[in-house]
């Protein structure tokens, strides 16, 4: 085939494609106008009806969850509460572990999952995006026993409707490898300051929400900035947080968002210390890893998680059955103790020495303690700390800033 | 024109003597026989639909998404027409640094693969016994059968503190380099090595023995022979191999997450924005696409793709 014919043919085949592309752009241009008009200002919540009854199970339920929430004994033989549920209800559980809230939101939007264990920052986005349905709490008998401090929080209740059933809450702790860090640190300073003796062996969480951890440290160390809520940052405050994170980038060895990856790093000593979850510490200790964790004096960021059901869940009945099962005192205690967090069900703090001790350790009913823990929530333009004279930075700005931090 | 003559017209007699079904198919093939364009179209419609709708279509959708915007609160994609995403890529130094870093890593991986493939291929093609050659060929191809994640994770373990590399280097008073750009280059070079080694080896096999002999008869030492005889003949194979190693490295993000430490590459930026800002991810994915197209054009100019 000669060059000339080839070029002609190429033009012929490209023409329809070009037309297609142009029409696609034209189409998107049209619909853009209507959409922008609908979604302006504040949190508007799509009207989605709640279920009125729980019927027979569909045979399966697909769950997006944090590592350690939905366990069938494969990760840790001692942690298994899925098998009993499958036997009782006939609903086979398909679990997908989410690494960040952002990933969970995206997974829920695929429509392939029925239930999610959403943290505060994910749940608000899911509710406002119309991705989850309100929960009829009458259909969750165990809802009545939940800790008062966890009911009706802004991040899972809007306009008087409940969208989530609380699972528990906890803090992002400071983990350290006891071989490399013999004395328990009491401050986040070792993970932020450039003269840290653990430079190059610090691990940080890989998500824009981690900017709040920097803001929290600035609240304690640079009061002049006037940060009163790590999720309400104006431009100057965000810049200061980014500067601190860039400084940390110089001494960080690794960013993690896969819990098992974090376990391998902190156990092997590839990382000496850094932000983590109690479940990572527990998994590492189960394998004999020299790992401990503390809640530093500056406080910490944390999370409060709830079960939510997809707006068009294919397995709604199994979803309700799962949520009620997981909220029962025994299972809620098992999840909370496996993950290392305060359970949401007050009865999960009773019944055995282990339960009482666990709730004591994690301050399950101690609202004072949680004043020092800033629960993940989605940053929005209207400052969450009540300031009206400035516009706060939104999560998209945080996302961009996060790319900047990692360079 | 000759190709059409090969297809003989369906025999009228055989169609008539068989059942009605055969007669119908006979009529169909006669009808098709007299219309070569329809015949060609019918043959190609499925593969072309595959290529056009699924493959190019999704690329076009990706391209269209690059002009959309995202709700700042819910991170939901909203159709619109904005150049913001491209402006952001052009003005934010982090994106440029990431793109340049990724291209650099891809080039380093390609060079490393070529530097190892060349002597290995030369040894296999010209020096090794048949037995050793077979063993080496199996050794090169074997990793292709192992799972990608398994290979990446084993490199993660190799680079870990107190891991095999540490143990190997300790007697020399060195520590394992740990996770980072170096570990990433080594891992990617391992992953894509067969794609470079196989074409280089088969090209070397095709160089006649007597060219090497002629070179040494004319006084060429071994290095001069490699440089003036082998390398020019290997150029097409090296370029073909580099297309694989370069473009595969350019798009990889999982290896970077596991052994890259804090190294950010194009793939990891796209992967994190897929959740938070899909239009920006779509816009950024145009960068490796453009780089690969430029690379292919350059390879085409060099004449290495004549046989494709």
Can you give me a brief rundown of this structure?
The complex is a heterodimer of chains A (407) and B (308). With 407 residues, chain A is α/β, with parallel strands linked by helices. Chain A has helices at residues 3-38, 82-89, 101-109, 120-128, 189-192, 211-221, 235-251, 259-268, 278-286, 316-327, 329-339, 353-361, 367-370, 395-406, and strands spanning 60-65, 92-97, 115-118, 132-133, 157-158, 161-162, 165-171, 173-177, 202-205, 252-256, 273-276, 291-294, 300-310, 342-343, 373-375.
Number of helices of chain A: 14
Mean pLDDT of chain A: 84
Sheet-strand content of chain B, in percent, reads: under 5%
Secondary-structure-derived class of chain A: alpha/beta
Task: Write down the CATH class of the largest domain in chain A.
Answer: Alpha Beta
Number of strands of chain A: 15
The spatial strand order of the largest sheet of chain B comes to 1-2
Through-space gap between termini of chain A? 48 Å
Largest sheet of chain A: 8 strands, mixed
CATH architecture of the largest domain in chain A: 3-Layer(aba) Sandwich
List the secondary-structure elements of chain A in sequence, H or E: HEHEHEHEEEEEHEHHEHEHEEHHEHHEH
Q: Please name the fourth-level CATH homologous superfamily of the largest domain in chain B.
A: MetI-like
Radius of gyration of chain B: 27 Å
């Amino acid at each position: 085939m000669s060059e000339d014919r080839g070029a002609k043919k190429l033009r012929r085949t490209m023409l329809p494609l070009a037309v297609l592309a142009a029409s696609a752009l034209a189409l998107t241009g049209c619909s853009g106008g209507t959409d922008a008009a609908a979604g302006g200002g504040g949190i508007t919540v799509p009207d989605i009806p709640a279920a009125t009854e729980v019927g027979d199970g569909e045979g399966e339920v697909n769950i997006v969850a944090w590592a350690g929430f939905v366990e069938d004994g494969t990760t840790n033989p001692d942690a298994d509460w899925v098998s009993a549920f499958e036997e009782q209800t006939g609903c086979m559980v398909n679990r997908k572990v989410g690494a960040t809230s952002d990933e969970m939101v995206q997974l829920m939007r695929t429509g392939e999952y029925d239930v999610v264990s959403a943290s505060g920052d994910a749940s608000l986005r899911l509710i406002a995006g119309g991705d989850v349905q309100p929960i009829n709490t009458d259909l969750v008998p165990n809802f009545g026993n939940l800790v008062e401090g966890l009911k009706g929080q802004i991040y899972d209740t809007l306009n008087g409707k409940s969208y989530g059933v609380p699972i528990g809450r906890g803090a992002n702790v400071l983990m350290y490898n006891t071989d490399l860090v013999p004395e328990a640190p009491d401050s986040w300073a070792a993970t932020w300051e450039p003269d840290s003796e653990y430079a190059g062996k610090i691990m940080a969480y890989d998500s824009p929400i981690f900017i709040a951890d920097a803001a929290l440290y600035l609240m304690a160390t640079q009061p002049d900035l006037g940060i009163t809520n790590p999720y309400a940052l104006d431009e100057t405050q965000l810049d200061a947080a980014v500067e601190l994170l860039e400084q940390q980038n110089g001494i960080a060895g690794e960013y993690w968002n896969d819990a098992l990856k974090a376990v391998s790093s902190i156990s092997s000593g590839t990382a000496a210390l850094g932000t983590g979850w109690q479940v990572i510490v527990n998994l590492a200790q189960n394998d004999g890893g020299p790992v401990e964790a503390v809640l530093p004096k500056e406080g910490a960021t944390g999370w409060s998680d709830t079960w939510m059901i997809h707006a068009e869940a294919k397995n709604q009945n199994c979803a309700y059955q799962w949520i009620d099962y997981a909220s029962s005192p025994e299972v809620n205690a098992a999840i909370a103790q496996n993950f290392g967090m305060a359970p949401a069900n007050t009865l999960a703090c009773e019944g055995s020495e282990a339960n009482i001790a666990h709730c004591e350790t994690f301050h399950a009913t101690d609202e004072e303690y949680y004043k020092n823990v800033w629960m993940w929530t989605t940053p929005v333009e209207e400052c969450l700390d009540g300031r009206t004279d400035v516009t706060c930075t939104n999560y998209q700005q945080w996302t961009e800033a996060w790319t900047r931090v990692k360079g | 024109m000759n190709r059409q003559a090969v297809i003989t017209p369906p025999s009228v007699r055989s169609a008539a003597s068989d059942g009605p079904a055969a007669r119908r198919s006979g009529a169909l093939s006669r009808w098709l026989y007299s219309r070569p364009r329809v015949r060609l179209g019918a043959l190609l419609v499925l593969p072309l639909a595959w290529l056009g709708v699924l493959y190019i279509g999704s690329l076009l959708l990706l391209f269209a998404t690059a002009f959309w915007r995202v709700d700042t609160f819910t991170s939901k994609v909203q159709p619109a027409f904005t150049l913001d995403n491209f402006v952001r890529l052009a003005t934010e130094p982090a994106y440029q640094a990431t793109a340049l870093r990724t291209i650099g890593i891809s080039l380093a991986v390609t060079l490393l693969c070529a530097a190892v493939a060349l002597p290995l291929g030369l040894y296999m093609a010209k020096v090794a016994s048949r037995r050793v050659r077979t063993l080496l060929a199996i050794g090169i191809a074997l990793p292709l059968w192992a799972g990608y994640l398994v290979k990446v994770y084993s490199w993660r373990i190799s680079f870990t503190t107190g891991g095999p590399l540490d143990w190997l280097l300790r007697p020399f008073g060195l520590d394992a380099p740990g996770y980072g750009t170096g570990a990433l280059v080594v891992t990617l070079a391992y992953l894509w090595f067969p794609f470079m080694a196989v074409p280089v080896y088969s090209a070397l096999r095709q160089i006649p023995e007597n060219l090497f002999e002629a070179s040494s008869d004319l006084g060429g030492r071994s290095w001069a022979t490699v440089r003036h005889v082998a390398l020019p003949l290997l150029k097409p194979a090296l370029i073909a191999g580099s297309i694989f190693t370069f473009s595969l490295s350019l798009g990889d993000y999982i290896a970077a997450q596991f052994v890259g430490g804090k190294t950010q590459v194009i793939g990891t930026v796209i992967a994190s924005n897929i959740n938070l800002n899909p239009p920006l991810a779509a816009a950024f994915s145009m960068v490796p696409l453009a780089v690969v197209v430029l690379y292919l054009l350059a390879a085409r100019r060099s004449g290495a793709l004549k046989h494709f």
